[in-house]
Amino acid sequence: MFRKYILTILALVGVGLGIVAALRSARTMVPTPMVSDAPTPPYQAFVAGAGLVEANTENIAIGTQLAGIVSQVYVKIGSPVAPGDPLFTIDDRAQRALVAQRQAAVLVAEPQVADAKYELKLAESLVPQGITVEVRDRDAFAVQKAEALLAQARADLKAAETDLERLTVRAPVAGQVLQLKIHPGEFAQVGVLAQPLILMGNVEPLAVRVDVDENDSWRVREGSPAVGYLRGNKEITTPLTYVRSEPYVIPKVSLTGAPGERVDTRVMQVIYSFPKGGLPIRPGQQMDVYIEASGKVGDRPAILRTTTVSNREPTAASR
After folding, report:
1. What's the CA gap between 171 and 190, in Å, rounded?
2. What are phi and psi of 315, to 5 degrees?
3. How far apart are CA 135 and CA 114, in angstroms?
4. Which in 68, 108, 126, 297 has the greatest CB count within 10 A?
5. For residue 154, how far is the Cα from the chain centroid?
6. Bridge-based pairing state of the strands 286-292 and 226-230
7. For residue range 84-110, what is the model confidence (pLDDT) as tens digits?
């Protein structure tokens, strides 16, 4: 008899659970407090943009021309390097054996040249005594052949030594190792990788790449001063020195993943630099950057437009 009421009981339980879930979802959500208040723009007319800190040489993704197993890594994360310093070496035992083989070939070819030259010199000295010209010409050809074989052996040795040198990847510029994603025993692939084997760059001074909306790009003058605030702490701020403006306007890369961002926005990238000094700012961090802007189009006064800039990412500026 109890079975008659099972479906009814289950239905009532389901309704009860639905009511509880609805009440819980209807609770007022307390907004998450901001980590830091938005910085105050230091200029009356300005353009705001999100900046990404990077090395002043740009972040250099180190790769290898020859694939193989890594036998030795010479640097650590944060290690300073000078141009030409070794970073890592691909297993070079086979290549060293080939170099030794090429060196032996050169050692064999050198006495053959000396022997051929001796025979030619002897033939030339015997010409007045009746030796034929054909014999002399034959010995001269033998000298040329021996010299050609020696040149080929030396070229093969040079090529083998070059490939041996290429197995050791060296720093192209002075800088600091920012990321190290390769270790002894791992296989190093060639080509452009999604995750570079080593990421390095010169971090003194640091650079910040600022995205300026294309609608405001005309307001940024060459040499315009700017001020940067570290994202999340407006107290960490530094004046910025203008370096250059990228000539090509590119699609904006989303740095926040905000669902309201327009995917068709294009930006002009402006590069500024600042001394790292004792600032707790590292490559890869974001900054809120305010650039002093022009308020006129030629001789016509521009209409100033002000918008609220959040502490997440400045998306507009006064105009």
Report:
1. 17
2. -115, -10
3. 18
4. 68
5. 37
6. antiparallel
7. 999 999 999 999 999 999 999 999 999
